[in-house]
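Chapter summary example.
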Amino acid sequence: MPEEFKSLSDILAKSPAFKGVRDVVDENRVIDDFYEIFPDLKKVAAPVKIDKKGLHIKVDNSVWRNELNLRQRIIIEKINKYFDKEVVKTIKFVSR
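The structure predicted for these 96 residues follows.
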């Protein structure tokens, strides 16, 4: 195969034209992998969506909302470390 040919996976992973696609995929992976990153939150919190690098999380009650709000910076850092890039900048907690 000639050297100028690239695989589709290489093009999607490295081409600047597909940066937006990669960002959307990573945002959706945050929702999909949330309980893999935070297995202890499975009973009290549920990720809803990501909008402009802001993660929306539904929480069981106001006590948990307050507790997770105090740990917001740690949660953001852990998510971004998991993906090795900044995927989340802010978190909004809402009661169920």
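To summarize the output: The domain at 8-95 is CATH 3.30.300.180 (GMP Synthetase; Chain A, domain 3).
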